């Protein structure tokens, strides 16, 4: 075992930048693809985006190899041990034989947990509005989706039994109100009537609401999953070698894995599972007349989709790291900062500015600050809590 590392001493600033920057870039490029470039195949865009998640752990490993003296072999071996111990965390046994059945079940659960609310939101978005996709994303369906911050906190308190805090609850509510002001504050009066009165509006809004609840559940599941304790490397060193034939593997492994590498790994596994399974939906959607399968025919659209996919991979990787660092509630409210950034980018691109949108942006930032102060884990952790040690 080369080094013991603690993820708690690494400040998640890079993860925050990845999450916020990736979301803004993905949003703007996806808007261009689905509207200006007239490539209205949202499921295909989602499939490509999630498939590109696969590169996350590869990029992270290359970065660690380039910026440190760690070898790819030691990093991969330590990652395998970390995942194995995570999946068998209820047992204190030092046996590190990889539990493949538990791994495939966890990967499938994470993929379904992330993909289902995404697809439901897209369907709800298309049913909820008679406006173009850009306006629809920035109106009711977008607001309903961002209520996942509220549901994440509600579920964590009522179902998981976490302690209730008035200031955290107020921060979640304020952030949601701020999103509504940003989204609706910039609309012109003739655009204020968001939907026609039809059954499809109600169905679409209900699907978006269900998507928000499911996504909150996904965040809480991953938050709880990565909080399971790993077997201490020091305690493993005390075991006699005959107690586990595989104990020798720890000698040249980086265990536990460096900060964020485990999150990058699970992000890549979601992408790999997407490639393997979601293609089945293409003939079904085409047969039902919902979406005709077809590759883009011009290079600019291909590049825009690729850019949106890479941005989505950065966003997902950063979000998974934040979930492991801060927990579901803080991460959910943090994601609402993307609303402010999208608003600012629209402003830079020449969009009209409403006073309520500006006010809503300040509310979101203030709510984020309240949650940071209320959270026991500081956002920008400057001092390490556990020193690295060489063995």
TrEMBL record:
- Membrane listed as a keyword: yes
Signal peptide as annotated in the record? none
Ranges that cross the membrane: 45-66, 133-157, 169-187, 199-221, 265-290, 302-327, 347-373
Q: Which InterPro entries match?
A: EmrE-like, Solute_c_fam_35_mem_F3/F4
Name the UniProt key words of this record, in alphabetical order.
Membrane, Transmembrane, Transmembrane helix
How is this protein named in the record? EamA domain-containing protein
Q: Which organism is it from?
A: Lentinula aciculospora
